[in-house]
Amino acid sequence: TGMFTYDPGFTATGSCASTITYIDGDKGQLLYRGYKIEDLAEHSTFIEVCYLMIYGVLPSAKELNAFEELVVSEMMVHEKIVDFYKGFQSDAHPMAIMVGVIGALSAFMHEEFDVNDPRDREHIAIKLVAKFPTLAAFAFRTASGLPLVRPKKKYNYIQNFLYMMLANPMDDDFDINPVVVEAIDTIFLLHADHEQNASSSTVRIAGSSLSNPFACVAAGIASLWGPMHGGANEAVLYMLEQIGSPDNIEKCINMAKDKTSGFRLMGFGHRVYKNFDPRSRVMQKMCYKVLEVTGKDTMPLLDIAIKLEQKALQDPYFIDRKLYPNVDFYTGLVYKALDIPVNMFTVMFAIARSIGWITQWSEMMAEGLNKIGRPRQLYVGPPVREFVKIEDRQ
Ligand code: CMC
């Protein structure tokens, strides 16, 4: 049967070659197409990063404007897709809705695309990134029993998302706080891609059978949902709320160290970063900035988060295992301060990661290798056994 390496969790397996994202886990370095995440977070925007991902280069101001206009013009979705939302229970988690409706996009966009044509792949990427916030906002409004709100040309990409999610249809105007827009833009930028994480690998494996790209992205959303991956931002917030007071931090840390508890410190640890996560530094800074301007009432949670981080970083358990706060340790706090509903945290991670998923899918298709993703296994079941007919069994 040939030789293969046994590598559960793929800790030492390179599954593809890629030109999109570079991570040096020891140095705490993250690059998108060669540009440092810190520089992009300071000077760029999520939409500019989408351009960079799709085209491989930074746009001129004119190109960027035209690109954002194009993306915004694609934010509307087929009205038929609205019917899907009617089938969900009112308490459905918005991530559950997203798995369904993004997968359903494959029913609306299938035959007209040639996945081997680079121009078509560019359009697929633009349509996915454009429609994602609309479908996400609809998911939230369905779960809250609110009427749906359609995108508007006068708003940019991030503003449109906030407008569709939070606007009260009875008000004439929607007041969009620029600090909120900037913070969300930066969070999206930080989450845009992260090389071969579980959800991106899922999208690649699904796509390797030459399947519909929107259906493949639905598989990625399913993978992202769990608390060990994108679900961590939501889990961090619940954890901090449960801790409730700095007095309970020690108890929480002890529980995380106890393997029989089944509990892990949410927002801590990373498969690749073993020194620090550069995204979490940007997030921590932003957390202070946002709380200064808006969410003073979230301050006690930030206080618990900072003390928890300090305590954990001094504990030999976390030092020995090189466990540091990851990007999502502070994301939930910022979202909370911005009054973003908690069950939307992971959905917002998915919006941001949509560009990474689809760019990686496109890169794989461009290679034209047509190599299906097909890991092997170590069989540990019974050896060949004699079959006993049902009437002869005891
Ligand atoms: N709390 C307590 N112990 C931990 C934690 C934690 N958060 N993370 C890892 N460990 C321990 C783990 O029990 C193991 O101990 P031992 O060697 O004694 O068995 C050791 O550290 C190595 O952990 P691992 O599970 O082998 O590491 P991994 O690379 O497979 O997992 C991880 C990485 C992120 C899934 C994990 O650290 C974790 O579950 N963290 C909490 C969830 C979280 O914050 N996830 C978000 C990740 S960043 C955003 C994203 O990419 O989605």
UniProtKB/TrEMBL annotation:
- Annotated GO CC locations: cytoplasm
**Superkingdom, natural source:** Eukaryota
State which pathway it belongs to. Answer: Carbohydrate metabolism; tricarboxylic acid cycle; isocitrate from oxaloacetate: step 1/2
What GO molecular-function term can you cite, just one? acyltransferase activity, acyl groups converted into alkyl on transfer
Which GO biological process entries does UniProt record here? tricarboxylic acid cycle
Indicate whether Transferase appears among the record's keywords.
yes
Alphabetically ordered keywords of this record: Transferase, Tricarboxylic acid cycle
- What family classification does the UniProt entry report for this protein? Belongs to the citrate synthase family.
Name under which the protein is recorded: Citrate synthase
Give the species. Tetrahymena thermophila (strain SB210)
Q: Which residues of the full protein are shown?
A: 92 to 485 of 507
